[in-house]
Structure formats: structure tokens, C-alpha cells
Design brief:
Strands 1, 73, 74, 75 and 76 form a 5-stranded antiparallel beta sheet that branches. Strands 6, 7, 8, 9 and 10 form a 5-stranded antiparallel beta sheet that branches. 1% of the residues lie in helices and 50% in strands.
Length: 940
Amino acid sequence: MLYLRTSQERRILRCAAAVLLAVSFATLLSAPCPGQQSTAAAILTDRPTPELSGQFSMPPTQFRLADSGRIFFSSGAGTALFQWDPDNVARQRLLQTNDPLESTGMNLPASVSGAILDSIGRLLQVNSAGHAAILVTAAVKGATDPAALLLFDGSSYREMKTPLDAYSQIALNDHDRVAALGSSNLSTNLTPTAGIYIGGPDMTAIEVAVAGKPAPAAIGGTYYILRQLIGFNDAGELAFLADVNGGNAQRAIFLFNGSETRVVAKSGTAAGSLTGFQIDTPAYGAYYALNNNGKVAFRASTVGGNAGIWVGDASGAVTKIAGLGEPAGIQELGNCNLYLWLRGFNDSDQVLYDCLTMPGSRNALFLKSPADSSPRVVFKRGQSLGPAGDFLATQQASLNNAGQVAALSSLTGGPSPLAWFFVPGDGDPTRIAAEGDVTPSGGTFGFAGASTPALLNAAGQVVFSAYILESNAAGLFSWTAGGGVKPVVNSTDSLPDGANPVLRSVPSSISDTEALVQFRKAGGQSTCYATQLAPNTPGLRKIVSEFDQVPGLGTVVGPDNLQMNVKGEVVFTGALLGSNTYPASGILASLPETGVQKVALLGESLPGGDTIASISPPQLNRQSQVAFLAATVVPDQPAQSQGQGVFITPITPTDGGLLAVARSGDVLPGGSTFVLRPNTFGSIVLNDNGQVAFRGIIDGGTGTGTFIGSGSVPPTKVIQTGDRVAEGVTLTGFQPTMKMNASGKIAFVANLTGNGRNAGILVATPNESGYSVQPLVMNGDSAPVPGAAAKFMYFREDAIDLSNTGETAFYASTDNIDGWFTAWNPSTISARVLRLQQLANRISVGPLFPQKGFIALAGSGDLAVYLPKINGSDFQPRIVISAPDGSLRNLAWNGEKAGNTGSEFGKLYPAFTATPSGRFVFGAVLLNGPAQAGLFVDQP
């Protein structure tokens, strides 16, 4: 929240002549004085700016449609927000990164003088009147990443004032009321508190639900996890999904009417003749929707039964619309058998849904209200849809209050594999655009890989995104009956004049000599460069740009997940456009000598004859090896033949070079078999010796294990659930994240049982017979907190690091305090940075809120720590470095001079890392000077 966190004028700190010695803490940090330089040196800033593309970055990250036909969209990774007016077909930029915060026109306090906007338009929502609710973040002197929830009424902005510091979801109704889900009290509490609030007419907050506070009497207990805002209707009713602790059900759908909260459905409630609901967590497809009648449509599983779709309201009564294993309602279609998805819900209580029916495996899209005895079939498999082909399956669908439907359908028997259709009430489908049709921007439509749900307004206008083949571009289009398709924006269009340059670091990609950065004009296409780590060293080495034309490969779209090794080689994920490649995506590489090339693409063959169906972000090591996890499929075989595998390949593929480290169904030493876990994407780890650590389920689900392999020999089991890890203590489960160093040592947070232990950090060390696994620390162990008898209680799985020397850094809370610790073994645990640790006179470490990237551990033992809040100081946040002897030094802090840039640090990006030689690199937004962003390295 912007105002509440910066409304007090910042105090001018006085330099401490002497540091107060605290009994509790042996090491102190000198207070920064105004004007004092940090130890961070600027490697690169956005002044001067390299030559940048002046074209839009597409497809838009978000777009929304009003009933008037006005379209709002953000572009360039949320660096600019635009609106498109159908009357004059003009694109107007509303806000952009690096604009002064005053550009919003709001009445701002003096404490935010000099602040600039950072991210723009996240969580974008638009109502029928064409007013927009957006989340913006800003760089503000003296504030920790402030966020503001703004309402734009077409001419001015207002801020919704809530206790929330961070937002995850918002909703907007037609009366300009905004609902928000997020976390609050970051400045005072150890653990952020989740909450849901509604902005009143004066934009002040009305509390709806807060984690830890009582849930409605009908369910009892207290709110535990606030999972989702379902909808916010024009009557001011807000539907949401939440888990409950200590009630008569674990999960429920709630409806708040402005004064009280009622239960629509809860887990365990009778579901017709079935035992009861298991209210599902949203996954694939839509699960929940609210209409203006106060009714909620929801998809749920049932205890001992199958999934179904119901409609309920605040009375708690529910009506079933459809269920798996039950008659589809149309005799020729048999029963709904698979893939029952909720697609839409309108004010006539009509539910749009689709499923695969049996016999015959026929996908169909249905429309049905609770009062209907049978559904209306919108599409069914085999239905002729004109020259484009016959209906095969629904990819995306939307419903409006007139009962009109817009759907992206896969087709068979014709020239087009995909097409958008509009169905006007009870009328026949009208083709909007089919893959291969000529676009109004030239080229032809391509929908594979661009199937973002279409928007459908009350007037029957449809907005959709698409690739533009032949032009190797991407665009956003609007369609109306009688008016045809109009281009809204595409990647060949020029940005409006005055786009600001934006620089951002790529912290996960680093070597001893270079780091990666991205440049773009706000709203425009990005270019990734490698820059030298030596300060004041000129020159940038281009890695890849959006929409780069690569001879023999195609046009690169959406490069992401970049990683660089010590040789300057870079791997990344991306899509490819081009006559020989579309639709293609996968892992690409940029090499210093030869430029961009492919590593592994979807559809390519794997050892064994199957092909890649989906692929994880890559891992890259200094040996130029790339490891990835892939879902696989056997061509011309049913879905049951799909599997998963972990693979390793040279960055330049060679015949026989791609090897399977492990596959589902492989036999392990001892005769067991395993399958790879569906959620292991991102949890594989590759080290510089070519070893890959990964997780798998053993013996068809009887246990889960961690394994290590290289592709040249069968994988070795490291540990599995049920294994003993200490006297009377066994492993019961894994957290997703693990770390592995060059020697093959692995560290991870684990779930435990026995002797009062339920959690710990385990370290697996290779030996002659395989691996030995011991606890580094467990809950209940003594914690080395100076001046206090403390016991470890809780560990954060994504807040852990492991150096090549074998030292582990981790976050832990104790029954006394929380902080960051390091250790080589259980006898060497050391507290490095603790909450409330004295930094200087009346200045101490505030709440830590650990997250991935908040620390980096160097082989030297230096530990860089991001501190989001400093008690008693207006200079925050900070990055501090803890030396092995426990002494601390400032690397950078908000509000102080940023090296020799002539600007001040405004926002520090906590996602930083250590180079192999032990230096720390980070990015920052800058204020009050010529440079507005930079990349920095520590210069002790």
C-alpha cells in the first residue's frame, strides 16, 4: 500500500559517533549517513541507452474489454499500459515505467517526492463502463517496494486504501468498487497476514476475511488460507474460496454481501446422492464463477464419486448441472466421461461447460441452466463448421449475458487446425477467424501457442490474440458481427513517441566476467545483452532480441528463463515463428561465436522413439551441458502412453548426444521402478560435473525419492521417504526445492517424523557406496542465538543456498527469534543475520520475510542478505554482506548514493547471486539523478 507506508516524512538520520554494543549480538553495522557511499559499484546504467526497438512487445501480457469496445492492454512485461478506442482506432499510452509518480495526477504526500513508477498494469481488471483497476509498484525513497491499487475512471486515478502491502488478486464491479486479496502488516508482523478487502465508495477498505480470524458460524473455526477471489458482482457481493482451520469443513466457497458472509458450499457437504464435496483447488480450466444474481457456479470433486459442476447461493442449496460418469443429457452423446471444465456463467444462470463424452470419445460444448432438463449443444465432435473443417474439441470459450458464446475450437477434416467462432444465442456458429485466414495486418492467423482466452462483451464483441504468420509477428484483434476483424496492436506497430528506456538485470545468469541485462523501451520489445562485470568497461554483447530473425530457425518470440555459464553461453526458452518451424517452442541457445541455435524443441524425437510434448526451463553448466525435464508422448498412441523423463544434452546437439538421465518406468537398483512426479518441473538441478538431481515416485506411488544421474550410467538413489535419517527419525516427504554443488552434495528441506521432529534440513554427501544423508539441523535442535536459549522450529524450503565449498545457508525461525544461518555440519551452525539484530544506535533488522533470491552464499563464506525492513531507519531496504567471522557491511541501501551514477538507490531487486569468484551482483531502480536503473557489483 502506497500511502500508509510512506505518509510520515522521513527523518534525517544522524551518523553515530560510536556503535552501541548489544549483549545479544556480537556484530554491529555502522549507520549510513546521508550522502555516504555504499560499497556497490555501477557496472551499467540506462544512461546512455543502446539502440532499442521502437515496436510493441507482443502478445500483450494482459488485455481487458469494456462494453463500449474500449480495450486496455499492458505490454513489454508490464512496463506500459495502453487503451485502444474502436471509434478512432487509436492506441493511447496511459502510464509507463520510469514516469514520475505524479503522472497519475493523484494528490501525493511530500514523502514520495521524486518517486517513479516501476511495474504497470498488473492484475488489470476493466468493468463495462470502461473503467480500469490496476496494480502499480513504484520506487520510493524510504519505502520497501510500495504497491498501489489504482482505479482509473477514464480521466483520473484514485487509490484504494487497504492494510495490504502486497496484492495477488483483484476484482472490479460496475459500480467502481474494487476487491483485493493480498498480505498485510509486513512492517510489524513476523509472518504476513492474508486478507480480503473491498474498497468502499470513498475507496477506504471494508474487511471481508483475514487469515486467523473467525470464519462464519456455519463452518466455524478460523480462516486459514485465502485462495481465490471468485467474483465481485454489481450488487456488491463478493464470492471467494478459502481453507478453514478448526471448523466443520476444511474448505468452502463463501459469499460476502456487504455485511455478512455466508457459506455457498463446503467440503463434506452432501452432494446429491454422493457422499460430499471435495472443493477443488483451481488447476486447469475454470472452476468458479459468480453472477449478478448472487449465484456461484463451481466445479468440485466428490468423496467416493466423480467431478461435477453445481450452482449454489448463500442459502447453501446447490443444483447439479453435470457430472462425470453421468448422462450428458443428449442421448446420442452418451455420458460425460473426461475433462469436465466450467467455461462461463451468466446472469441468466446459464453455465457453459465442456466434456469428453462416451461412447465415441466425442468432445462437446454445452450450455445449461439449473431450470433446464437437458443442455443445449453449442458444439459437438464431427459437427461441420464450414470450409475450415469439423469441430474436434474446445480449446477456450467465453459466455456473455445474452447467451452468446465465443470459442476457440480445434478442427479436423479441413485446412485449419484451429479457429475462433461466435455463436449468437440459438443461432448457428459464425466463423471469426481460422488459422490460415488472412489477417487485416497482412500475413495469416496462427493460433497454436497463442490460445489466451478470448474476451466477449455484452455487445457481442470478441477480442483475441494470434500469431501473424508470414509476417512472423504477433497481434491482438477485435471482431464484431458485421464489422469483421480489426487490428488492435501487433509487434510490427510503432510505440507512441516518448517511450522511456527500461533496464533490468537477469540475476540467475552470471559468470565471473559477464552478467545479463535486458533493455527495452517501455511497452516495447526487449533485447538481452551480456555486460562486463568490471565497472566502467564499455560495450554490450547482444544475446537475443524479441522477434529476432534467425536464419534456418525462424523468428524468436518470448525469450525467457535465461541462464549463462562461465563461457558466456546462454540458454533460454522461447517460441519460434516461420514457415518451417511454426508452431515450435522449446530450449534455444545463444553462443558467443555462432549466435542463436536450437537445443531441444517440442515434437522432436527422443531416444526410444517418443517425442517431446512439453519441456521445463533449462539448466546449464560450465561443461556446456543442458538438462531439462520433459513430458513425452509416443506418436499415434493414446494419452495413456505419455510419460516423463529427465534428459541431458550438449548445448550444440549431436547424434547420440542427447541422453536420458531417467524415465518413468525405469528399473532402479534393487528392482524398483519409478515415475517422475508431475510437479517436478523446475526442481531438477544440474551441477558443473554433469550430475542431475531429481525427484521420482517409487514403486507406483509407495514412496518418493531423490535420485542423481548423468545419462551415462543408471541413476543412484540418494534417499527416499521412509528412510531413517537419525535415531528414531524418518523422512516422510520432500519440499520441491533442492540445491546441489559441484561435488554432488545436496541440501534440501524435508518433512520428518519421530522423536518430536517434523522438519529439518538434510544434507546428502556422496561416498564410495553412494550417498550418506544426515540432518544438518532439525526442529527442536538448539539454535545459536546469542544471549538466549532458543530452539529451531521452522525452515523455509525456497530460502536455502549451498556453496561449492560445502557450506549451507538457510533461513529458520526459532522459539525466540528468526534469521539467516550457515553451517558445514551440525556442530558449526552460526547465526549470520537475525531479526532485531542491532545495526547501529536505535537501528535494527526488521522482519525478514525470506523468499527465493533473498540470499546468495559465496565460496568465500560471505553471505549477501536482502533486508526488506529496518527498524528505526528511513533508509530501507538494504543489502548487507555477512563475512564468515560474523561482521557485517552495507552493500547498498534505499535512499543513498548509487556509486558514481549521480542518482540514489530507489528500489533494490532482491534476486541476486554470487559469481564463482565470490562477488555479488544485483540490479536496482534509481531516483533523483540522471540514471533511473543500473546493474551493480560489490567493491569491498
